[in-house]
Amino acid sequence: MSKSESVPTEAKRLHDAMRSDGKEAYSQDELSQLLPSSDPESLMNHIQSLIDFGLIKLLETKDKQLLFQPISASDAAKISNMSNDEAMIYSYIEASGREGIWTKTIKAKTNLHQHVVLRCLKSLESQSYIKSIKSVKHPQRKIYMLYHLTPSIEVTGGPWFTDSELDTEFINSLLVVIWRFVASKSYPKAFKKDGFPNGVKQYSYNSDHKLELPNIQDISEFIVKSGVTPVELSLSDIKSLCDVLEYDEKLESISEEFYKAPWQSILEAGGGKVNGEDIYGPQDDQIFNISDNYRVMEAQVNEEDGEQNEPVYLDSWITI
Fold it and tell me: Which pLDDT band, with edges at 50, 70 and 90, does 35 fall under?
């Protein structure tokens, strides 16, 4: 089709109607409803004109039904400037969607020589039509997809991977953020600089305190509002992090919906101090003396002869 030619008026009307209607693809009957003034023969002529200008792509369903997919004018112009080999390779990359396609698969589908495939890929990539991506499942493969698309989770591994590598630093930082948030809801005053007032070691809550504890949705909203990460995390992603914290005994689930930080995790993080007391400071060695009364079995009176038995010490008692 010559670049000096323009799309016929009725064909352009049909294309505009397809684009504005918003469907991905249309059957011939659906196209006739978009342009009711055209008879079947005229409609097919309009469709052929749009195909010639690259404004319609032919698709085939699993049951062999023919469908017509509208192509934007900008995409059509882009493809019209490609060589036949480039256009063919581009079409396979486009069809791969967010999964992308391996260069070896492109070569097999197009039946082009390796050098031709590489030359076309380089040309398309230099014009920002396509891009190469790394796959978590196949890190050694070079995979291509359309430039404006975002790779699927199956390809990237989700938010936990950066450049196909598990981002442990990112994961650990999120674990700390989530634990600290839940801890602040579990024991709001546990991290006060002056410790708990009046020598209280920890606060007890009434039975309905779980209403103040956070659930997955609360944790997700906190992460979004805090702006700790630009990465979008789904509720299942948050749940996975909470599962890790549960396994590490940093969180415990309440009624299978809410989360609470165990008191021991508060102490391990340096919280819960009583009036500035150092809970990890040196203790009085005297309390470990084996001769302390509380470490001695009390002497008992023998009922038969009335004599007092010898006291049994802890170290002797253990070996009995």
Answer: confident
Of the ranges 63-67, 98-102, 192-196, the best mean pLDDT one: 98-102
Task: Please give the full DSSP string across the chain, using - where no structure is assigned.
Answer: --TT----HHHHHHHHHHHHH--S-B-HHHHHHHSTTS-HHHHHHHHHHHHHTT-EEEEE-TT--EEEEE--HHHHHHHHTS-HHHHHHHHHHHHTGGG-EEHHHHHHHHT--HHHHHHHHHHHHHTTSEEEE--SS-TTS-EEEETTPPPPHHHH-GGGEETTEE-HHHHHHHHHHHHHHHHHHHSTTTT-TT-BGGG-------GGGGGGS-BHHHHHHHHHHHTS-SS---HHHHHHHHHHHHHTTS-EEETTTEEE--HHHHHHTT---BTT--TTSPPPGGGG-TTSGGGEEPP-B-TTT-PBPPPEEHHHHHT-
Answer whether 47's CB lies under 8 Å from 30's CB. no
Closest C-alpha among 132, 234, 219 to residue 179: 219
**CA pair distance 182, 177, nearest whole angstrom:** 9
Both tokens assigned to 124: 């398309």
Rounded average pLDDT over 177-197: 78
289, two tokens: 């003396």
59 neighbors 67 (Cβ within 8 angstroms): yes
Choose between 47 and 299: higher pLDDT. 47
CB-based contacts of 37, cutoff 8 Å, min separation 6: none
Partners of 301 in the beta sheet?
Answer: 308
Which of 59 and 290 is assigned the larger pLDDT? 59
Q: Measure the CA–CA gap between 118 and 94, rounded to whole angstroms.
A: 17
d(CA 248, CA 264): 12
pTM of the model: 0.54
Q: What is the 3-state secondary structure (H, E, C) of 169-189?
A: HHHHHHHHHHHHHHHHHHCCC
